[in-house]
């Protein structure tokens, strides 16, 4: 209960008005309002449970007990100064539990829906903006090829327009997936520093966004393949699966860069620049050189095997079997990078969040 003297002191501005000669009552109306406020405050204060500050427990009333269901779902987290590297089994167990638990999946799905709805909220064209870049880039290369400014070698049975469009769609899906982990976690900095949720949920939400950005443009291939009378058959399913694997490998590489990218914006700024240069050493708009050091650069390029094999399967062409060992090798390497990236992300995020909050 608040002392009357303190309450009257707090209510003094209601009933006193200071002038040059001192304080005096302004009128009876202000005094009446102060009287009503005093009794209203006392009535509200009587409704509050009395507490004992020394024991921080309620004096009157029965302390509410949690229900059985709430106790069963109550999660206890113990924070210690020890590094997780000292207990690798517990580190991996906790990492997998936080990645695939119901709480993480639910939060990741809600974040994915929110980001997808807000992506083109005030846009007239909406998701067409995902289709415009590969279409315009393909039109430029078709124009350069037909005007003989750039001479492109044989692209097999597929028309060059379909060949270059397929390559651009695959390339865009991979490059967007490479930049998506840093973009997603950076975009959710406010939530990351205020809500205690499994931090792996942000990576899951970013991966769902990367899959959406990659799959929507690929729907454009269906009517174009019908127009050019290209029927790949069952290889279309194999090519689609390999395309999703390519997106996953690119996202894994971006996830490995996420902890450093959150500390230094140079990583996020460098990804588009490196991608533009990388475009010209990848057979996106032209075939792999037949001889010379350029062929070695193209063949050892991690993106070459995935892109060339995926495009051949999608268009029903002959697969270059010389690239399959590279696809398999880089695919297995991506699994190791995925595991190492998750461990690095889990160990570094508490420090990064602390620096974000400071």
Structure write-up:
By secondary structure, the chain is mainly alpha-helical. α1 runs antiparallel to α2 (28-47), α6 (128-146) runs antiparallel to α7 (160-187) and α14 crosses α15 (324-357). The strands form two sheets. A two-stranded antiparallel sheet has the order 1-2. The protein has helices spanning 4-15, 28-47, 68-72, 88-100, 102-119, 128-146, 160-187, 189-192, 200-218, 221-227, 235-263, 266-279, 293-300, 302-315, 324-357; strands at 16-19, 22-25, 51-52, 57-58. The longest helix is centred in the last third of the chain and has 34 residues, at 324-357. The protein is built from 15 helices and four strands.
Please specify the SSE layout and strand pairing:
Elements: H1 4-15, E1 16-19, E2 22-25, H2 28-47, E3 51-52, E4 57-58, H3 68-72, H4 88-100, H5 102-119, H6 128-146, H7 160-187, H8 189-192, H9 200-218, H10 221-227, H11 235-263, H12 266-279, H13 293-300, H14 302-315, H15 324-357
Antiparallel strand pairs: 1-2, 3-4
């Amino acid at each position: 209960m608040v002392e009357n003297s303190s309450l009257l002191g707090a209510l003094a501005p209601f009933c006193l008005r200071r002038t040059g000669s001192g304080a005096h009552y302004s009128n009876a109306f202000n005094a009446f309002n102060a009287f009503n406020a005093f009794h209203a405050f006392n009535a509200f204060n009587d409704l509050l449970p009395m507490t004992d500050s020394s024991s921080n427990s309620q004096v009157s009333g029965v302390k509410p007990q949690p229900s059985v269901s709430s106790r069963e779902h109550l999660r206890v987290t113990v924070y210690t100064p020890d590094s997780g590297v000292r207990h690798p089994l517990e580190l991996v167990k906790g990492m997998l539990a936080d990645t695939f638990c119901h709480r993480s999946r639910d939060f990741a799905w809600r974040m994915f829906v929110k980001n997808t709805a807000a992506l083109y909220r005030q846009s007239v064209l909406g998701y067409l903006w995902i289709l415009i870049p590969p279409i315009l880039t393909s039109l430029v290369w078709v124009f350069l090829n037909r005007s003989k400014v750039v001479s492109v070698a044989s692209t097999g049975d597929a028309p060059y327009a379909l060949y270059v469009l397929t390559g651009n769609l695959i390339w865009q899906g991979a490059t967007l997936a490479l930049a998506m982990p840093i973009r997603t976690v950076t975009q959710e900095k406010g939530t990351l520093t205020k809500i205690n949720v499994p931090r792996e949920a942000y990576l899951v939400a970013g991966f769902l966004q990367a899959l959406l950005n990659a799959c929507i443009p690929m729907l454009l291939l269906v009517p174009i393949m019908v127009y050019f009378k290209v029927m790949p058959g069952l290889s279309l399913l194999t090519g689609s699966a390999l395309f999703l694997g390519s997106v996953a490998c690119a996202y894994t590489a971006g996830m490995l860069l996420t902890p450093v990218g959150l500390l230094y914006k140079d990583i996020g700024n460098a990804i588009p620049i490196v991608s533009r240069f990388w475009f010209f050493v990848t057979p996106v708009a032209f075939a792999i050189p037949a001889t010379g050091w350029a062929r070695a650069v193209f063949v050892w390029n991690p993106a070459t095997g995935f892109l060339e094999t995926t495009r051949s399967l999608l268009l029903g062409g002959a697969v270059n079997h010389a690239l399959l060992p590279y696809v398999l090798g880089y695919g297995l390497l991506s699994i190791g990078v995925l595991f190492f990236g998750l461990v690095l992300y889990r160990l570094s995020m508490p420090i990064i969040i602390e620096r974000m909050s400071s």
